[in-house]
């Protein structure tokens, strides 16, 4: 057909490497076979890995960030292979709210069904393999409600995966903070009761009880991402465009509010620990504990958490300062920060920016 | 199409636009198109690669933010959008992009470098008809350019449609710039850094019977692990705390960016050095400058240089102030003051974190000391000479150690 040819005049170009880009393929029969066999029924820990496509990852991160302090939610499309979830795409759901409302499944159900229907008509055959939502500022783990949602999903539409993204920490850490989880079936006791979620030390006070109560009902999967050969080429070209922002970003400024919240939280935790210590050691004075080894242990644990949280904040702040100092060194050559404490952090910067310095001043001269 | 290759594309108008559009392209659009092309090709789907791009419109400013593929239909021998499908799909996207509200701003497809083709005309007419706006742009992805990308040029061009007086539709090329949101940039950066092609990898401990033919066995186990390490930069040194790794990753990104800046400046320098001597500074020369000089470029270099001192804080900009060690006479600029304050805040947080740790460790010491003291009292009182002490110390000691290790 003529028109067809005219449209596809450019499509003949080989942009895709069938071996290296194999994850972009989709085999309906094979998926059906896997779904029928249901290997995940036999082993609660069957799925161990998640691989997320570049597009899906960026979509989810942006969606999470767009919600600000509100939790957002969406679905992931993809398929399963052996012990791995392959996430190929993500879609937003028209649900937004605080953590208690994020499971408003029914509102989104209709949207979801129609959306997937349309996608299939356009040739995107994947099924939904999971849902994602954001935890703005309190880390990647599953709350009680999340566990309930995920548990239901695993019962009725397995294979299903839960992904949590923390947009605030993504911004402050400069890398995508993401966690992927599956719940255990009822009555299953995980062999090691150690918690699987990350960033445990930094769970804010308001959420700590919720976190602790459900931490052993789910486990986390290892998340990695993939991109196509075409993606790599484009990214390389893009880097030429967006490197400017890497230098010019000022995390100290953009994250000010978030950091203030974090500090408030640590302060509150400190007060709590302090109160606890006073109660226990009141009669004897000092730090001597009266409540026996058990009480002391939990007290020390709390102190440890506070220490970790405080150090995390300090570290993030230091990275922000580094960014500012790099900028200063490169663009305002000649004025070195004179603060004594800063010299420790200034050392690694000096070497890296030396080239930039001379170049800049050469041009100016 | 053959005749178009020889002569300039008849669909492209050279007429200057009345107003200029400012268009900002987000990387996600590009990656979505790339994703679609990869999928389309591998799954051997039929029909051309066509999709829509949504974004914001603010007067003559456009952003291209999200993209999705479209279902097509045939109408009078032309390939056009499936009306019903498209109307519903665009509503679905609008539903979830309300703040800021996004609407259809462009369509994308693949095309040769020459620009829009005849087949695109009825298609764009239909789109205009569907949306009852004329401002829908056309983004063309040039697959043939992908392997010869140079200097950060992207393999795409953007076109706006123009209604000519003879009633025909023509296209005019638009310039655009790449713009990223903060989260988007981190996402793109994260994806770009982490190694990883999309080879299907069988985990080594998977059920052997379930292998499919396209597995790359040699890369089996631990592939995902490796990748994670790659993503964190060169953290292969072993025992680095996650904080250190984060620091290294962010410093690496900065270093790369600075290298890039350096490259760019070198490029400009070598270009400027190649140029012949200015005939203005040397009044004895009579030869006029050659025509090959790119005046626009020189002018923008000049304007950039004259702006640099304006942007830098005053105490920094004047060489006299920077060269003299003591610039106490000058008031530090407000930006310098703000920077100083910022720095103090950061160090204060650092100090507080260190203090917290000290307190915790002091408390730790206190409780251990207490155990020892208690043990000693008990020993003195009862007169036991051995035992007890070592054992008594263990439970508390071990847990404390593990907590703060």
From TrEMBL, chain A:
PROSITE patterns: MPN. Component of the COP9 signalosome (CSN) complex. It comes from the Eukaryota. Keywords: Hydrolase, Metal-binding, Metalloprotease, Protease, Signalosome, Zinc. GO terms for biological process: protein deneddylation; proteolysis. Residues 356-365 have a biased composition (Polar residues). This is COP9 signalosome complex subunit 5. PANTHER family: EUKARYOTIC TRANSLATION INITIATION FACTOR 3 -RELATED. Pfam families: CSN5_C, JAB. Residues 284-303, 337-365 are annotated as: Disordered. Residues 50-187 form the MPN domain. Belongs to the peptidase M67A family. CSN5 subfamily. The keyword Nucleotidyltransferase does not apply. The keyword Metal-binding applies. GO terms for molecular function: metal ion binding; metallopeptidase activity. One of its GO terms (cellular component) is COP9 signalosome.
From TrEMBL, chain B:
Residues 23-165 form the MPN domain. One of its GO terms (molecular function) is metallopeptidase activity. It is found in: Cytoplasm; Nucleus. InterPro entries: EIF3F/CSN6-like_C, JAMM/MPN+_dom, MPN, MPN_CSN6. Pfam families: JAB, MitMem_reg. Keywords: Cytoplasm, Nucleus, Signalosome. Residues 204-234, 314-333, 377-405 are annotated as: Disordered. CDD domains: MPN_CSN6 (cd08063). Residues 385-395 have a biased composition (Gly residues). GO terms for cellular component: COP9 signalosome; cytoplasm. Residues 320-333 have a biased composition (Polar residues). GO terms for biological process: protein deneddylation. Belongs to the peptidase M67A family. CSN6 subfamily. Component of the COP9 signalosome complex (CSN), a complex involved in various cellular and developmental processes. This is COP9 signalosome complex subunit 6. The lineage of its organism: Eukaryota, Fungi, Dikarya, Ascomycota, Pezizomycotina.
